[in-house]
Design goal:
single chain, about 625 residues, alpha/beta, Rossmann fold, 2 domains, 6-stranded mixed β-sheet, about 55% helix, elongated, binds adenosine-5'-triphosphate, ATP-binding, ABC2_TM, chloroplast, ATP binding, ABC_transporter-like_ATP-bd
Length: about 625
């Protein structure tokens, strides 16, 4: 049972930039967007939240779902089985966001299976978790598309309605007693929308409390709602049984003059649109006086057109009537509450019981690693990617074909190849890693909001899952180049070269993860990354030796230069070209430190990321 009373919520309107458009608002002005909303929804009920765009539906849903970004700006009382919100509730509440945040390359079955493995607690065996995923698949009628990929705007996958059902399935896997849905029917045709609503109706009648924001339901969908909250500009205009809404508005003087879908009628009222609607006497009077004023004065001389003036009055009237309705409801509610007290005692105990992570760290790591691997298997198996590496290696091998070191010029040429290898492998892995966290941010936010797994398990799984393929490609590249360019003979030199390039790859990935996680914006991150890669490459000591002291420190951060130093040492030991050898141990140590340090910074950046919406 969810009960909420006099919920008010403010946001701080962000400081307007010079070219920003928050006209009329001072920097940091707070704005109340929910003005005293009261209501309740119990097990077995479906509560629909309706109102025009911008009326506060999503905000209210987020607030009730514990996803408020500024808890200090929230007032009023919200009780879940008579207990205020605690973090332990996160894993008991299902929340389906408006956007379908799913991995596009996973199939429907894989998506539900991974969610079941991560979300269902350890007291279930693996087989039971898999069975649960299959049961949900069947319950939502998704067997037919079970092995179809989810897809996205660029990749053909399941339909919009099926995608939405997958999102709902992910939430009902844990059998939540409370299920929130933000616009589950938006973007769907009326038949699919009706299917989703009847699914929610069924889920509610199986003993859950379901609360959904709905934009424009058909009249058949409307009749499936048990309760209804109507909002207008953040003010409540109705709360009660959905079936009673038309009668209520009739009693306060609003009746449709032509046959209308009740949802259209209610939305029109909340928007202040009273065409084809009878008005209560005082508003009728007001309408007449505005109409007569319209004859005498121009609209420009009064603040607002006649229609908006009447609309404002209608909204105010509705809000006043609703306040009265809710205070009457409050008195009857206290009688019902006495009856509920008995049942609530044991429910409270369940809700406030301390909950651990659903699965162990190691299980989370393995499942996330497997999921990451499956999601990106198309990239790993991509012929283009392998071709890119092989062709680059063949090109480099041809340019440095059977390179020699007999003369100073030949030696210089071969050094060029070593520098190229350091730079090349400092570039590609960085840019692949750069996009990892920004692109997965919505999924991470969604899953972390329900405490599905530890951030450290995700981080380790995500940062390690790309490594095998990068290392595999590195080995292919080095083997081709090494043989074609006829680099130093000897098994150990060959193995050390591979290890050095792999260290370069791992360090460069770390830089990519670090920039991506710190910035979380693909465009900004790639701009910064290009500057950094270029800076490190230039300061690496190949192009310039005498770097001014004030910028000399950059060379110590240049992973490409450290790799180059190690490679030259492997090729020539300390016989030639002493100026570039530097201290081998220092370079290896510097790269090893970078591998760890950049990842640590990336992890800290992710930790600091705001999870709430
Ligand atoms: N963080 C914020 N800063 C400033 N204004 C906000 C913020 N969040 C919400 N608002 C404002 O609060 C009002 C309600 O927003 P909300 O998204 O809850 O409306 P909605 O009814 O869900 O709209 P829609 O149906 O279009 O999704 C809007 O006017 C919106 O601009």
């Amino acid at each position: 049972m969810l009960q909420f009373e006099d919920v008010r919520y403010k946001v701080v309107v962000k400081k307007a930039s010079k070219w920003g458009c928050t006209f009329g608002m001072k920097a940091g002005t707070d704005k109340e967007i929910l003005h005293g909303i009261t209501g309740s929804v119990g097990a077995g009920e479906m509560l629909a939240m309706m109102g025009p765009s911008g009326s506060g539906k999503t905000t209210l849903l987020n607030v009730l779902g514990g996803r408020r970004s500024n808890p200090q700006w929230l007032t009023g009382s919200i009780l879940y089985n008579d207990v205020p919100y605690t973090k332990n509730l996160k894993r008991r509440i299902g929340f389906v966001t408006q956007d379908d945040v799913l991995f596009p390359h996973l199939t429907v079955r894989e998506t539900l299976t991974f969610s079941a493995l991560l979300r269902l607690p350890d007291r279930f065996t693996k087989d039971q978790k898999l069975q649960r995923a299959e049961a949900v698949l069947a319950q939502l009628g998704l067997q037919r598309c079970g092995d179809t990929i989810i897809g996205n705007q660029f990749l053909r996958g399941v339909s919009g309605g099926e995608r939405k059902r997958v999102c709902i399935g992910q939430e009902i896997l844990i059998n939540p007693s409370l299920l929130f849905l933000d616009e589950p029917t938006s973007g769907l045709d009326s038949t699919t929308a009706l299917r989703i609503i009847s699914l929610l109706h069924k889920l509610a009648h199986q003993g859950r409390a379901v609360m959904a924001t709905i934009h424009q339901p058909s009249s058949r969908a409307f009749h499936m709602f048990d309760k209804l909250i109507l909002l207008s500009d953040g003010y409540p205009t109705y709360f009660g049984k959905a079936k009673g809404a038309m009668t209520y508005f009739d009693t306060i003087g609003f009746t449709p003059l032509i046959p209308m879908n009740p949802a259209d009628f209610l939305l029109d009222l909340c928007s202040g649109n009273t065409n084809d609607v009878s008005l209560p006497p005082n508003l009728q009077q007001r309408k007449k006086s505005i109409a007569s004023q319209k004859q005498k004065i121009t609209p420009a001389s009064v603040p607002g057109t006649p229609m908006t003036l009447l609309g404002k009055d209608v909204k105010k009237y509705l809000a006043d009537c609703c306040e009265h309705q809710i205070s009457t409801w409050d008195r009857t509610k206290s009688l019902q509450n006495q009856k509920l007290q008995q049942n609530l005692k044991h429910l409270q105990a369940v809700v406030s019981e301390k909950q651990q992570w659903p699965t162990t760290w190691w299980d989370q790591f393995i499942i996330l690693f497997m999921r990451g691997f499956k999601e990106r298997r198309h990239e790993y198996m991509s012929l283009m990617r392998v071709l890119q590496m092989v062709l680059s290696a063949l090109l480099a091998g041809s340019l440095w074909w059977h390179s020699k070191t007999s003369t100073f010029r030949q030696l210089q040429d071969q050094e060029g190849l070593l520098f190229f290898m350091g730079v090349f492998w400092g570039y590609f892995p960085l840019f692949t890693a750069l996009f990892t966290f920004p692109l997965e941010r919505p999924i991470l936010m969604k899953e972390r909001a329900t405490d599905m797994y530890r951030l450290s398990a995700y981080f380790m799984a995500r940062t390690l899952s790309d490594l095998p393929i990068e290392i595999g490609l590195t080995i292919i590249f080095v083997v081709i180049v090494y043989l074609m360019a006829n680099l130093r003979h000897g098994f150990l030199s060959f193995i050390y070269t591979i290890l050095a390039v792999c260290l370069d790859v791992t360090a460069s990935q770390g830089v990519g993860f670090c920039i991506g996680a710190a910035i979380m914006d693909v465009q900004k991150a790639s701009t910064l990354a290009s500057v950094i890669v270029l800076g490190f490459m230039l300061a690496g000591g190949y192009f310039i030796q005498n770097i001014p002291p004030f910028i000399g420190w950059v060379k110590y951060l240049s992973f490409q230069a450290h790799t180059y130093k190690i490679l030259t040492y492997i090729q020539y030991e300390d016989a030639v070209n002493v100026r570039l050898h530097g201290d081998l141990a220092n370079s290896v140590l510097a790269l090893a430190v970078m591998v760890v340090a950049y990842r640590a910074i990336a992890y800290i950046s992710l930790r600091r990321m705001k999870i709430s919406v």
